[in-house]
Amino acid sequence: MIKSLFSADAAMSFPLARALHREVEDSIFRTWEARRKWLNAAFDINVSGDKASQDFDAVIDLRNSIVHGDCQLTDLQVSKFKDLFRLKEQYARILSAQVNGRKITLSSEVAVRSAIVSRDFVLHFDKVLLTKFPAIAVPVS
User: Fold this and answer.
1) Mean pLDDT by 10 residues, the chain (141 residues)
2) How far is CA 36 from CA 13, 30, 51, 141, in A?
3) pTM more than 0.70
4) Measuring CA to CA, how many Å separate 127 from each of 19, 25, 106, 134, 135?
């Protein structure tokens, strides 16, 4: 969807805009934070701070704990002390995952809750995006 926004933008008809886009394209998709920053800066689309986005951040953070921390809080997550309590609270409240020290215990509800949160974020993102850019909607057949 983000690639479609860039492709459809009138500025992309200029060689300079295409060259600049090629230079920064990798950074656009490196993290969710980067995606949101670019959506806001380039297209005035803000999908940060609302409940759907905050809950989705918990899914992203838990995924990072599982993949990069072997089901433990990562060094990066632990180093952000001011965010640590929020993270533990979100894991429990939103995803039903418990944190004890660095170790994360996943309940049987984590997968379903993660799927619901992810779905809600996609629906929210689509609504925000299509409100601003209705022309990119794919017709239902």
Assistant:
1) 71 79 75 86 88 96 95 92 90 96 96 98 92 82 73
2) 24, 11, 15, 30
3) yes
4) 30, 24, 31, 10, 13
